[in-house]
Amino acid sequence: MHIGKFYLPKKILFWLVLLSIFATSATVVAASPAQERVASIRSNGVELALHVPNEPIFLSELLPVDVSLTNENSQPVTFMGDINSTLFCKAALKLSIKGGGEPHFQLPHEQNGVTHGCGAFGEVTVQPHQTVTAHYFLPMTASGAVTLQASASLASRSGDIVSTNDAFIHHTPTLALNVSPQIPAERRLSLRLSGSHIFVSAPSPARAHLYYQAFGECQYGDGSSIHRILEWITLPDPALNVPDCARDTSRTVTGLDWGVSVGSPGYAIATLNK
User: Exposure of 73 by Cβ count < 10 A (0-12 exposed, 13-18 middle, 19+ buried)?
Assistant: First the structure.
């Protein structure tokens, strides 16, 4: 019996080719045993991936999410934004969340209508076969089905003019999560106000990994105010000062509203505000 070339019917061959095209651009979701869930996309010789812990997620949790980008090209690739920022308007590797419903969880700055400010930001160049990662701490503010999505924008320069285009305009890495409205008792933090200090109580595994976010809204005699909001930053000691208006000594302070949020990856966020 002679075994040589064989030919598939044209209809079958068409569907196999079509399937191979979509497989190269679709989101790939995988779960490492007891470690993390990963969704990734390859486009323009670049891989963009989402990494989320593979464990139950609950309302008010400070969820650690990594967004990584790997340049698989033989040439450098430049993206718009700041690799060290997690503010959506200036981050090079962006993360967004959609969906969810009641019950909700609100951070103090959301209740007060204070928003992040975004100044000038630049570009990040990723060398061939280099991977860069943005580490996010994402508050779970809604219950039920939510979807995480990552994105990044290529930068191209012509003289002094920089233009951008979405490197993953047709497909983006996404992960569907279910957020439980029930907070496990062993995953709670608490805050206590004493004078001008706020003290944090946390389970021992969380104490070495505390982060906080704070804002202060200062009212002055001339009617003006200042809003300040911080990204999640390390809290090396389980105590912090109440936000104040001491930096501006040239005007008379007539009032101060403030809010503080403290969290640890995998634990519920504790809040305190005035």
Answer: middle
Give 226-265 pLDDT, tens digit per residue.
777 678 999 988 999 888 876 666 778 888 888 999 999 9
Burial 185-205 (b: 16+ CB within 10 A, else e): eebbbebeeeeeebebebeee
Report the alpha-carbon distance of residue 90 to residue 80 in Å, rounded. 8
d(CA 78, CA 123): 7
101 vs 144: CA distance, rounded Å: 6
**For residue 154, what are the CA distances in angstroms to 48, 72, 81, 173?**
12, 14, 10, 16
Other beta carbons less than 10 A from residue 180's beta carbon:
14
Q: In what order do the strands lie in the sheet containing 142-151?
A: 57-58, 174-180, 142-151, 94-104
What is the phi-psi region of residue 187: left when phi exceeds 0, alpha when psi lies from -120 to 50, beta otherwise? Answer: alpha
Q: How far from each other are the two terminal CA atoms of the chain, in whole angstroms?
A: 86
What mean pLDDT do residues 90-107 have?
92
Per DSSP, the chain holds a count of helices (H) and strands (E) of 3, 21
Torsion angle, alpha carbons of 230, 247, 113, 177, to 10: 10
Closest CA to 262 of 220, 197, 183, 209: 209
- With a cut of 60, say whether residue 16 has pLDDT above it: no
Q: What's the DSSP call for residue 247?
A: T
Q: How many CB atoms lie within 10 A of CB 6?
A: 5
